[in-house]
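Limitations
The structure tokens in this dataset are predictions for the assembled complex, not deposited experimental models. Users should treat interface geometry with appropriate caution, especially where small molecules or nucleic acid strands are included. An illustrative entry is reproduced here so readers can see what is and is not provided.
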Amino acid sequence: MSTKQQYIDGLWVDAISAKTREIINPFNQEVIAEAAEGDASDAQKAIMAARNAFDQGSWPQTPATERGRIVGKIADLIERDSEELAELESHDTGKTVEESRGDMEDIAGVFRYYAEIADKDGGEVIDSPVSDSVSRVVKEPVGVCGQITPWNYPLLQASWKLAPALVAGNTLVIKPSEITPLTHVKVFELIEEAGVPAGVANLVLGAGDTAGAELSRNTDVDLISFTGGIKTGKKIMQAASVNVKKLALELGGKNPNVIFADAAFDTAVDQALNAVYFHAGQICSAGTRLIVEESIHDDFVQALVDRVKNIKLGNGFDDTTQMGPLISQEHLDKVTNYVETGVQEGATVAVGGQKPDDPALQDGFFYLPTVLTNCTTDMDVVQQEGFGPVITVETFKTEDEAIKLANDSIYGLAGGVWTSDIAKAERCVARMRMGTVWINEVNFYFPHAPWGGFKQSGIGRELGKAGLDEYQETKHIYHNLNPEPDHWF
Ligand SMILES: NC(=O)c1ccc[n+]([C@@H]2O[C@H](COP(=O)([O-])OP(=O)(O)OC[C@H]3O[C@@H](n4cnc5c(N)ncnc54)[C@H](O)[C@@H]3O)[C@@H](O)[C@H]2O)c1
Ligand SMILES: C[N+](C)(C)CC=O
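Predicted assembly:
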């Protein structure tokens, strides 16, 4: 088995320490690859390459049209190799290959979107308050960007960072989660093939507290963009203060899905399942807090439970599988404890609440899709991000109460409202404190619309024009066409 290497300064390299890590398929714990285990010294080497490429290389000055062309070529290559990428992602994360195929389409779309807008903002001329002067605003790259991604949507989250950073003329070092590096390695082969100059885009592999921590504290890094958990986000924010790095944080969520009695019942039930059980609930924007109008609670829960019982768990490469495993034994233990805590707090397991007993699933990190009823907003299970296939159900009687419950969270990533009353829907979303709100929809995102969190779900935005702004500095240039002495002194 050849070792998956890092890509630093245009070369494929092992870790300086020569250490490696086994990469595991969470469906059966089979070792599917061996990857270089970089650490702080590898990160320093990559940062130096990115620093040199920014300070002395041609990329920041390359016309935006040309940078866009190269990023467009990456999109073409991702489309060409999308099946290979999708299979790698599913082996690495356990998600169904159908879900991974959807991710690859989205990823190519993100590179394509930023390629297309690369040269669309040529700056702005300001109406100067002084005659014989020109005042203009231009956008410039920030510099060297550190980028850190999580294991749940490895390449998708990377694409939201790589594409805008590159078209804006930055250089970068990205570090994937140490447990899911495979699609990052493959996409760097495509980045090389597309003609991105050596040193501009660098890939470091390895653990968060070594390689990742170096990216956040190193003073040669000008911007750090992180997607992951809130605890890590806080550490990165602290480390980044050393040189006041620009900071973008995409953190967790505990997202409400509010169902009014006048919602289209069958669709709302169906989408409440989609909101949570895709990728076994390991989605930052999963609608895990179901908030249902009291008058339909019993029917709604019964309909959910009937459907949940039939969800087919299994190998993501089997066409009939609807839900794969969790990512690791550690995460399975965390989800198990999370549900047990909920039960101790007074929640009732309406369905699931344990590992499956199917002998075919015993080698994987499976947990049954679960619905917990009798939940109240003060419970840990309602407030903490469980990041597993678990829905908690709360009830409300009035619109005000529904909004109060929806907003009762330290998080503010996303939320949904289901109703057939247009005015009520608009009133609700206006009051919901989240970066994305859906009316009669769940979990929908696309390259043109910004993504990010209110409150402790994060800082900054990815995707859309806002996602490009994160990677640009704004410079005002004032030109006095008729300089004269003032004779003040
Ligand atoms: N807001 C979003 O768009 C979004 C998207 C995907 C995932 N997430 C969140 O990500 C979390 C799950 O991902 P995870 O378990 O991989 O998160 P995590 O915070 O454990 O790890 C994320 C990344 O940070 C690195 N890391 C860990 N410690 C570090 C440190 N001290 N310094 C620098 N880097 C460090 C890890 O190696 C990994 O690459 C969930 O909370 C989920 O909600 C958010
Ligand atoms: C941002 N999203 C929904 C793609 C993945 C969150 O975990």
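Some entries come with short summary sentences. For this one: The longest strand covers residues 133-141.
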